[in-house]
Amino acid sequence: MARPKLHSDDAILDAARDLLVRGGPGAATTAAISSTSGAPVGSLYHRFGSRPQLLAEVWLRAVRRFQAGLLAAATSGTAMERALAAADWTVEFALRHPADARLLLQARREELLADADLPAHVRQSLTDLNKPVIDLLRGLAADLFGAPTPARLERLAIAVVDVPYAVVRRHLSRGTSPRVDRDLVSHAVRALLDAPTG
Known about the structure:
Blueprint: H1 9-23, H2 30-37, H3 41-48, H4 51-73, H5 79-96, H6 98-106, H7 109-112, H8 120-128, H9 131-145, H10 150-174, H11 182-194
């Protein structure tokens, strides 16, 4: 019978994420992750293979958490209701998962995983990561505007992605809650989507 894990994968990934958020990639050394999580260094390598792979898993977990909520939020209602719900999820995600939100807003994937020698399946996961969101935006653009033309996709991305991200980034960088501007995000998104289409 396998010995139970003393330190869960999530505890290790949480430790790595928190180090990244506080100090960037340089702070998330194997020794620091081990010390913060309590998991022996050998256990980190046994479970994740390498430090770059562990950091990739931190990033993937945060993005997948965000995407799961985004896709769930945008599944029902009119096209406008789904678009507003998708935009609102960015604010909700920051409220529910502030550390993950900080990671996604502060750390660039390219910087985090620069020159990383990752297994093929991890590289493929990173390559395919944004496909569900792209598919969602294309579907919303078709439902809202009749066709997902490049200009209409751009407008939708500005409304549903850029506006809420900017508000959340502003608040998290100041240490304040984006909750206070939640209604403002909704109004801005609706105004952008209601404007005449080109």
